[in-house]
Structure formats: structure tokens, C-alpha cells
Amino acid sequence: MAKTRPGGLISKPKTGKRDLDSYTIRGTTKVVRVGDCVMMRPSDTGRPSYVARIEGMEADSRNNVKVRVRWYYRPEESLGGRRQFHGAKELFLSDHYDVQSAHTIEGKCIVHSFKNYTKLENVGAEDYYCRFEYKAATGGFTPDRVAVYCKCEMPYNPDDLMVQCEGCKDWYHPACVDMTIEEAKKLDHFVCSECASDDDVKRSQNGFSVSSVADVKVRLLITCCCISVLMLSNVGRTYGVDKNTIFTSTLFPDPLSSSSGIWRVGRKQAPEEISAVSRSVIAQGDLNLLAGLACRLLVCDV
Ligand SMILES: [Zn+2]
Ligand SMILES: [Zn+2]
């Protein structure tokens, strides 16, 4: 998209040009330097200010200052237009360069990285962010893909409140999980419905419920009060919790509760095998073994 600016572009002087390090914005004491981001007056006063990064500055013999700029585009100025995930302060760093009179500079602004912007405690009028570069001719973006969140599978719009599930760590829009923003703000903890139902299954089966021989799937949860450092440092490898090698399956942190020390036995082990071993342990009353390891063995049917 071609951008136009008010007239007053100084015709190129034949001699006496010199590069400038800084320029004081007319009518202010604010100094801008190469590399700074600035707001520039649009030719159409009904439009929001343009945002640009100053790439260079030079003055002619009559001290008229010109700035070489690289434009930031607002989402609505891009070929694809504004999308739902674009924030109000989002800008795209374009490949569109221009030369303008320094007189059109209205003020300075800051274009943050996306990460830094999301960490701002207060967003001022001069704060913007950029997470994409934009090719003005083709409408292409770099990067061309971005992480998505929530059930709606949308990229993060920092203007929208989201809540993080303590289980799966995904982020959710309150509206997508049947909550109002007010309700979401009051939450101390949030667990998404999927993680909550998984949790219910676990809770209802939490116990030494020795089940029938016809177990199809058996899950072992080993809740360790003080699981050995060795075990923690061998995540993903095969080992047993005791020297008789009762369990030979791969252990990995339970994604639902790794923080509380619950580990899930890998599913590669034949369910019948786990079931038989578990029952034999309990039948023998050999829990001292596990108690010695400060472990609690739970046999859960799923
Ligand atoms: Zn959503
Ligand atoms: Zn979840």
C-alpha cells in the first residue's frame, strides 16, 4: 500500500548535505535518533498517525531535515486486513522505505517485541508491539505461522484476557470455557474441563482397588513423597522402584500432576503384566518395600 505524506518534501539540494545523529522534534525538546521509532503526521487528518523507524537523517545547506524511514503497518493497512488476533497496538515492520520531511514527526514511540509488550504493567499511548515482518507488495508475513491457544485455536491477542490451565498449561479465553471475564479475574486456580475430567477419573480410582483379572487397561500411579533423586534424574529411562524390579516400565512425569510428584507408568508395558504384578505386590502385603521408599502404590483401572 502506497503511503502519502503532506507536501513539503524538500527538493534535493545539490550540495551541502550532511548526515545527522539526532533531530529535535519541532515545537518540542524531544530528540530523536537513528533507530528510534516515531509517530508521523498523516496527510489525512482523520487517520491515525503513521509509525516508522528512523533509518537515517540528513540536513541540507538550508538546514531542512529529511528522514529515511521504514514504515510500520497497522493491521488494517495490510492486504489481509485486521484479524481477530491482532491487538490494538499491533504493528508489522514492513519492507517499505521512504524519505520524509522531519517536520512530519509528531513524537516518539516505542515498538516493543511481543514478549516484552506482554510483560508491560501499563501500556501507554506510545507503546506498540511488533511480532511480524510484512512484505508490502505480497502481503506476506514473517514468521508465517504462530502458536495457537485455547479451544478456538487462535493466536494470542494480548488485548484479550486468557486463563492458564494448571494441568495442560494451555491458555483459554473465558468465553471459550463458559466463563465471564469477571469470573475469570476472580479465579485463583483454573483447570480446563478436559484436565478436570481426567482428574475426576483419577480421584475416583485413587485407592488399592484390586480389580478383576479382566483388566483391559491398568494405570499405575506412584505418588512419591520423596522420590529418589536418582529416579527424578532418570526420567524417560527404564528402571524399577526397588531392587526386585517390580516395575520395569518407563516412567515419565504425569502431565497432570508432575508438580505433586505423581508419575505415570508408560503405556508400553502390557496392561496384564502391570495388573498381575500390582496384585501380587498387594497380595503379598509387601508394602513395606514401598513404604521404605516413601512411596504409595496406587492401582487404578481405566
Ligand atoms: Zn478461545
Ligand atoms: Zn487443561
UniProtKB/TrEMBL annotation:
Every PHD-type domain range: 147-198
Domain BAH residue range list: 30-145
InterPro entries: BAH_dom (IPR001025), Zinc_finger_PHD-type_CS (IPR019786), Znf_PHD (IPR001965), Znf_PHD-finger (IPR019787)
Keyword match Protein biosynthesis: no
Cellular compartments per GO CC: nucleus
Transmembrane segments: none
Keywords: Flowering, Metal-binding, Nucleus, Transcription, Transcription regulation, Zinc, Zinc-finger
Keyword Transcription regulation: yes
Main localization, broad class: nucleus
Classification via SMART domains: BAH, PHD
Localization: Nucleus
GO molecular function terms listed in the Swiss-Prot or TrEMBL record: chromatin binding; histone H3K4me3 reader activity; transcription cis-regulatory region binding; zinc ion binding
Residue segments, region Disordered: 1-20
A biological-process GO annotation: regulation of photoperiodism, flowering
PANTHER family: OS08G0421900 PROTEIN
Family listed: Belongs to the SHL1/EBS protein family.
Listed name of the protein: Uncharacterized protein
